[in-house]
Fold:
Amino acid sequence: MTDLWHNFAILFCWGLQFLWTWWFLCISIVLFLNLAIASAWTMSRRSVYWEHKYWVVFLPLLAYPAIAFAGAIAWNTGVPVPPLDRPAPNAIAEWCVLILNIVSVGFGIILIFKMRHLRWFSVSVFLFIQWVLTGINFMVAMPIGGVWL
Structure:
């Protein structure tokens, strides 16, 4: 049981460290600046057009710990399979991560169309969340697939 939480903590941290890895840092900075500028630009209109249901725009962030947990549960330490000399990937975990990603993208796209007067802000939040999820997907692919970089 302690290995599960240890693996979860490792994947959680590695996924966040992805954001400031030097070859991805430029994209992270651009997306963060876009989010900051969109937040500042729409601040005056947000009081007029913001509805309480718009807080759900941050809901796809819940996929981050769920994906990390799927990777921690399916941490692949199996016996290598002869054709590839690596453990076989965990198909259930791969499907879980795929479904979480599809739901996150679909939910984000729906919210972009729902938030009519705040589209720049919603697109900025969506892109930043998807970038954060890209980091955890890279990190979770290694323990699930059994291929370590």
